[in-house]
Amino acid sequence: MKIEIQLDESYREPQIIIQTDQMTEEIRLLLQRLGSTAPGIVGFRDGQAEFLAPERILRVYAASGKVYAATDGGEYSLRLRLYEAEEKLDPRSFVRISHAELINLSHARQFDLSLSGTICVRMSDGSSCYVSRRYVSKIKQLLGL
Which tens digits make up the pLDDT trace of 18-66? Predict the structure, then answer.
């Protein structure tokens, strides 16, 4: 991707122009990042709201009709649906492993492929997650297997 910045005192606000022959995933990701103003996702715990930096989030999952984010500092309730959290998080770092769970690949420590039809993912905090059969091929492709 070629990037060009032009400084001109006549402009009163920044303007971004993307010139391309087709809409690609890279362009969609760029648009998503440019449109995002929040520093992360807002999590709730003990009556307090807190911004959760994406790099702190180990996984996001749905349970009992609610969505939670497990971080290095504990678990937080989110006021988002799982797909909304997925849209806010970087798809290069966060990947869906089941209908009800996303994981942060930078916190994944081990992928156990010995189970038939599924994959066990060991996270940096010692917890384990399981890739559902539906997402196994996607994870294997991501890992280059």
Answer: 888 888 888 877 776 676 555 568 999 998 898 898 889 999 999 999 9
State the chain's mean pLDDT as an integer: 86
Please report whether residue 36 resides in a domain. no
Residue written as tokens 């990947």?
95
Residue 1 belongs to a domain: no
Range of the domain at 92: 41-143
Sheet holding 128-131, edge to edge: 108-112, 119-123, 128-131
First to last CA, the chain: 28
Determine contact, residues 71/84, Cβ cutoff 8 Å.
no
Helices (H), the chain: 25-35, 82-88, 133-143
And the tokens for 61?
């999952």
How far is residue 40's CA from residue 57's CA, in Å, rounded to a whole number? 10
